[in-house]
Amino acid sequence: MFQILIADDEPNIREGVRQFITRRCPEWQVVGAARDGKEALAMAERFLPDCIMTDITMPHVNGLEFLEKIKEELPDAKLLILSGYDDFEYAVQGMRLGVSDYLLKPLDTELLIQRLDAFAAELTQRQQQWQDRVQQMQQRLHQEQKIRELMWRASAGELASEEMKELQQFCIGSDRYLVALFQGGPEIRQELPALLNQRFEKKLDAYVLNHSVEGMSFIVFSIHQEVTNAAAALLLTRELTAVVVAIRRKWNQTVHFFLGGIKDNIYKLEKSGHEAKEAAEYSFYEMAPPVRTISDVLLTRVTACLEIDPHLTEQVALTVAGGDAEAIAGAVDGVLSWFYPHGVVDAAYIKMAVLDMCLSVLKKRRGQNPITYVEYKACHQEIMEAGTLEELQECFKNLLLLCRAAEEKKNPGQELVSRIDEIMGEHLSDLQFSLDDVAAELYISPNYLRQLFKQASGQTFTEHLTEMRMKEAQRLLDDESLKIYEVAERTGYADSRYFSVCYKKYWHITPTDYRRTLQESG
Fold first, then answer.
1. How far is CA 483 from the centre of its chain?
2. CA–CA separation, 38 vs 18, rounded Å?
């Protein structure tokens, strides 16, 4: 059974078409009925349908925009436009996007059945052809064992001249080569040769070698003489992306291909292999596209590096100064979530930026029991070897926790108290100001802040805030141009009478009497 997705903003049409296909087209299963282009895009990415039937004029994202966005992810899907507009320009745009047919409203249901039957027949034939090719490829793979072994040794620079001539005889019709690495599970690698060769047919030959590099399969592509370098590069990107989609459909796994450069003879396979490894090393799988080439990596090297928001570094330093493990984990999330929205996907740059931030934090801790060189060196190595963002996140967090533990060895919380005093001073007139506000600004849980503050200062937060307000009130009372109610408001008291009670309790004298003593002494 094949899957179809329907997108139309008119409920009657959307539901009517869904019910009609369900009743009259047994070979098709309606996996979704979207109300607009945005919802259709999400459904298409989720279900990966074999056919998409969409209206043109829809809110948020129109039908043509939707098809243009989804075409790259579903290059083999059949596209069908259903529209109330008999507009030649729409038809031209649809042809450009690879639309299979253009049907007008009101819908001719018999014509729809014909189209879906034709699509089903074509898809069935394609599946049969694929199965036939798989069988042929399996037979061929048995004969290619020696070729793969020679390819591997050539890419490692270990092939003797006589063996190189033997390998060239196997590759008659090819004069250029490229090495790729495949990141995916072992169950997928077994069927990878058939998947690749059925996609490229007679333009390229793919050899999945019986070796791996850091858990990734090693692949050599030989390019036929009639295919130009530009055509080969485009073909590789497009077809490997389609392979990624097919793997996701069957195994529900996200995989990646990392490509080296195209080389003009088999003696340069080793160089292409180094480039493929470099393309992988400079990528985090979570942020990498399905196919990443060495050209992508080289492009990032000539792009100016963005400076990380200094405010982020300051937040991390403050969190290390007074935050618990939960707050530090939150600070790490904040830093790593900064890169992707700013277009930074280069793994090497992200790792170096994280290390620079860690060094900045350590400099701020100078003289306060910083971590040892051995500890920093071990964390540095773990960060540089991190293969995923998740691994980098864990290494980054561990280094900051080391910094935090080192600081707690001596005079814990004193720097935090100074920082809290600064925040309090800025909010003395705020009637609603509380410990929760300080905790939010410092990215620390309120309970942990309350405990640490008491331990470091010997006072509760409320006692300390009252002390600061009373000292500020006495300073303001020295200015006789200010009314007592103005002094009360500037120190966070809405009621001047309550302010006088608090002032007397702290200073053992009322504000009025304090003013009188000033006048008498003056």
1. 57
2. 19
Q: Which residues are bridge partners to 165 per DSSP?
A: none
Residue 245 to residues 50, 59, 94, 114, 409: CA-CA distances in angstroms? 12, 28, 23, 28, 53
299-314 pLDDT, tens digit per residue, is 766 555 667 777 888 8
CA atoms within 13 A on the CB side of 394: 7
User: Whole-angstrom Cα distance, residue 506 to residue 453?
Assistant: 21
Which distant-in-sequence residues (6+ apart) come within 8 Å of 53 by Cβ?
4, 5, 6, 7, 17, 80, 81, 82
* Residue 7 neighbours by CB distance under 10 Å: 28
- Supply the DSSP symbol for 304: P
Q: Give 156-208 as a 3 state SS string.
A: CCCCCHHHHHHHHHHCCCEEEEEEEEEECCHHHHCCHHHHHHHHHCCCEEEEE
Using left for φ > 0, alpha for ψ between -120 and 50, and beta otherwise, residue 28 falls in beta
pLDDT recorded at residue 303: 58
Sheet holding 216-224, edge to edge: 204-213, 216-224, 174-183, 256-259, 291-293
What confidence tens digit (pLDDT) does each residue in 207-256 have?
Answer: 888 777 777 888 889 898 889 999 999 999 999 999 998 898 888 888 89
Task: Identify the helix (H) or strand (E) that includes residue 174.
Answer: strand 174-183
Distance separating alpha carbons of residues 286 and 345, to the nearest angstrom: 9
Q: Which amino acid is at 408?
A: E
**Which pairing describes strands 291-293 and 256-259: parallel, antiparallel, or unpaired?**
parallel
pLDDT of 32 above 90? yes
Would you put residue 147 in left (φ > 0), alpha (ψ -120 to 50) or beta? alpha
Nearest to 28 by CA among 45, 50, 9, 43: 50
| Strand, helix or coil for residue 309 | coil
Q: Which two tokens stand for residue 48?
A: 């990966």
Structure confidence at residue 413 as a pLDDT band (50, 70, 90):
low
Q: Please state whether beta strands 28-34 and 2-7 pair in parallel, antiparallel, or not at all (unpaired).
A: parallel
Query: Which 3 state secondary structure label does DSSP give 204?
Result: strand
**177 has which bridge partners?**
222, 263
Residue 504: which H helix or E strand, with range? helix 496-507
Phi, psi torsion values for 160, nearest 5 degrees: -75, 160
pTM of the complete model? 0.44
Joined together, the tokens standing for residue 24 give: 């009259």
Q: How far apart are CA 178 and CA 264, in angstroms?
A: 9
Distance of CA 298 to the CA centre of its chain: 21
Strand partners, 104: 83
- Can you tell me the distance from the alpha carbon of 238 to that of 256, in angstroms, rounded to the nearest whole number? 13
